[in-house]
Amino acid sequence: MQNSKFQQVSSVALPAEASIAGLYPGSQLADAYSVHLPAGVEVDPERLARCMFANLPRWARALMRLRDVLVAGFGIKTAAQMQAVTPGAAIRRIDMFRIYSGDAREIVFGEDDIHLDFRVSLLCRGEPGADDAAIVVVTAVHCHNRLGRVYLFLIAPFHRLIAQAMLRGAARAAWRDGLAGQDI
């Protein structure tokens, strides 16, 4: 399926059905990327989100490690700090990010920090097998202060590249290995 429409990621308008679409009025970043679903594929949003992180390109992992080194001195949470769970707190996560909600059509994950809050929605759109069936990744960010705005300005170009690469990698793995409806 190399170069098929099932691996072509495109920028799309924020879907109104995404639960985070209006979460942060006047948000500093709100974007959405989509990839088509092959006919007959049923997708569990949480499984696909886990697949996205499992198939993160090496260059993106390296950028995230560099981010951790650079932000540690500013009081911004590192990946390790986000993954640390307070004893007694049962917080479900996808990789380093907290899961806020989920159902058969959408999962919402993200993090809150001193500089900004963000949410990511992985939304199953349309009916499986239909021409418009797709997975849409929606991101919304609300900055609290100048540090948040500067941070967002610096990472936004990388966010866009990583979001698209993650969606493309998840689609490639899910469709190739039939993982869309299996535990990942």
From TrEMBL:
Pfam families registered for this protein in UniProt: DUF2867 (PF11066)
List the top taxonomic levels of the source: Bacteria, Pseudomonadati, Pseudomonadota, Betaproteobacteria, Burkholderiales
InterPro entries to which the protein is assigned, alphabetical:
DUF2867
Q: What is this protein called?
A: DUF2867 domain-containing protein
